[in-house]
Design a protein that fits this description.
Layout: H1 16-22, H2 67-70, H3 97-148, E1 168-173, E2 182-187, H4 191-194, E3 199-200, E4 211-216, E5 237-241, E6 245-251, H5 261-264, E7 286-289, E8 314-322, E9 329-342
Parallel strand pairs: 2-3, 4-8
Antiparallel strand pairs: 1-2, 1-5, 3-4, 5-6, 6-9, 7-9, 8-9
Length: 355
């Protein structure tokens, strides 16, 4: 201090806040001059959006609530309105001749279809039930006849048959068709006879005799005894029972099997079966012919000449319609007698057990 000068005031202690904010290591800034704390500016309030005015949509009316409006557009689909102004349905226009003819023809077709359907049901199912009852009656009558007229079997004696139309005189079994396959053979081949069961062609040979023992049967309906006749194979057994004998026939070789038949004869079933020579060259195990070809049941099938009875083979021929549900053709099965046994109490041929 110099003489005559006023003394300088002594600095006071530093302000604490100033020291705090000016410290180089504090990382802070000094307070603003106006004394308000420093900081980010206050955010400005955004203006609130104004909602648009609510749009009122008028309700849609349901056309179903007003039937009149529903049918206002009916003209788009036709020329006639379903209801008139008073609410009544107008009368339909008169039918034309063409429309009546078409309707009548359609009804006729429906009626014809129903009639055909009922006829098929009757032929296939109802006639089977009717024929089954008639077959049972014929079999019971034959059993009663055999039981009441006991005859001792004699191989040297020729059996006698009471051949009356529609009456059974023998029984037939096909073991390969199962143990339940059995039918009584009646005399005659008329529609009435065949409703009972397989029918014997009049004038043909009798069981076991030389010639051609021929039997016809239905394939569909009326018992259908020959429904599966096409399933018979060469050497299959067809057993015929009479009052005195069992006769075992076996199906002949089919067409085309004769060439290798020597190998087939190693089968016990085929041991006594072989292709027949002349005059049986055309006689095979199975064939399909026209209904007019009656030569298939001749003593020697398909042979026009005469053959002495002593030179004739003992054949059995089965005939039926072909194909199923049709009579345009005939299915023929030829078989030859392989064995015969005299009947004895409790005796049944072993061939009956074949399957």
């Amino acid at each position: 201090m110099t003489p005559g000068s006023a003394p300088r005031p002594r600095p006071g202690p530093p302000d604490a806040d100033a020291t705090r904010y000016t410290n180089a290591f504090s990382g802070s800034l000094p307070p603003p001059p106006n004394g308000r704390p420093a900081g980010p500016p206050a955010p400005q309030r955004r203006p609130r959006p104004v909602d648009p005015p609510t749009e009122v949509i008028p309700p849609v009316e349901d056309p179903a609530d007003d039937p009149a409006e529903v049918y206002d557009d009916y003209d788009d689909y036709g020329d006639e309105e379903p209801y008139d102004e008073e609410g009544d349905r107008p009368a339909p226009p008169p039918d034309s001749a063409a429309r009546k003819a078409v309707r009548a023809f359609g009804e006729l077709l429906i009626t014809a279809g129903l009639v055909i359907l009922l006829f098929v049901v009757y032929e296939v199912y109802v006639t089977d039930l009717i024929s089954a009852g008639k077959q049972d009656d014929a079999t019971h009558a034959l059993d009663d006849q055999w039981n009441s007229n006991t005859v001792e079997a004699d191989e040297q004696r020729q059996a006698r048959y009471d051949l009356l139309d529609g009456q059974a005189f023998a029984k037939m079994y096909i073991p390969s068709f199962g143990p339940d396959y059995r039918f009584s053979i009646v005399e005659g081949t008329t529609d009435k006879d065949l409703e009972i069961g397989p029918g014997h062609y009049k004038g043909t040979a009798l069981p076991g005799d030389p010639g051609n023992f021929s039997v016809a049967g239905h394939r569909v309906g009326k018992g259908a005894p020959f429904n599966d006749l096409d399933l018979l194979n060469s050497c299959d057994a067809i057993v015929v029972e009479t009052q005195t004998h069992w006769f075992v026939y076996r199906v002949l070789p089919k067409a085309g099997e004769a060439a290798g038949w020597a190998q087939r004869q190693s089968d016990p079933k085929c041991a006594k079966v072989s292709p027949l020579g002349a005059p049986y060259d055309k006689t095979v195990g199975q064939e399909i012919v026209l209904p007019t070809q009656g030569e298939v049941i001749s003593p020697v099938p398909h042979f026009e000449g005469e053959v002495p009875a002593a030179q004739q083979a003992a054949l059995m021929t089965l005939t039926t319609c072909h194909p199923r549900f049709s009579d345009k053709q005939r299915l023929i099965v030829h078989s030859v007698l392989a064995m015969s046994y005299p009947k004895a109490p409790g005796f049944v041929p072993e061939e009956m057990k074949e399957q």
